[in-house]
Amino acid sequence: MLDQIRRDIQKAGDKKKAVFLGRFFKTGKGEYAEGDVFLGLTVPKSRVIVKKYQDLPLDACIELLHSPIHEERLIALLIMVSQFVKGNAEMRKNIYDAYLDNTKYINNWDLVDLSADKIVGEYLFDLPADKAGIASSQAPRNDVLVKLARSENLWEKRISIIATYAFIRKGEYQDTFAIADILLEDKHDLIHKAVGWMLREVGKRISEDVEEEFLKTRYKRMSRTMLRYAIERFTDAKRKKYLAGLI
After folding, report:
1. How far apart are CA 129 and CA 124, in angstroms?
2. Across all residues in the chain, what is the average pLDDT?
3. Averaged pLDDT for residues 69-92
4. Which of 187, 192, 225, 242 is the most exposed place for a label (fewest CB within 10 A)?
5. 103 and 160 in contact (C-beta within 8 Å)?
6. What separation in angstroms does the CA of 95 have from each of 83, 85, 86?
7. Distance separating alpha carbons of residues 61 and 12, to the nearest angstrom
8. Position 106 pLDDT exceeds 90
9. Mean pLDDT, residues 190-205
């Protein structure tokens, strides 16, 4: 089955799109995705393949996730997400554990953004806050996210904040704020964007007042990118005050 899915992925590729995607996802020398290989599949094309191979065994998904080809890793993750959503408690834990054991291969922002909240976030939310498992150990929900946020790995840091999107959708924001505090002065643009996005989602889905309680004591320490993302839904007048440091 693994050979067949790889043939289907190769067949669905587009050389012109591959060149564009390589530039878009910063695969050049010294860039954050240096050396990543694209075949030129769009996400909708990838999802067609995911649907066809939605029963791919987890060990085969992990093997596909280890591929140097970006779209193979993406499809592996999307299959894992699909199986996680439909799976029983044992399957969900196995997928969650496999995900955290293989974060080195979840190494671009689209891979993180299409999977972290749907696997890590949902798994952690569904367990009592003091019994969220990471591998074979037991750790509080927040500890799992804090460990990822304090990693030296860019993508683990992004996973930590994007995972909290699952909590935000269910009306909880405390973990988002805790992880945002850790990442507040991070140097990487992709972390600035991710944190700002999640803060914006707190304002959008829970309460703008709650978001502002967090921002008012921290916005002057944020990068401009993080702040701009966070206040994107505010009124024009309020945005200008934040950007001018007048709040």
Report:
1. 8
2. 93
3. 97
4. 187
5. no
6. 8, 10, 12
7. 19
8. yes
9. 98
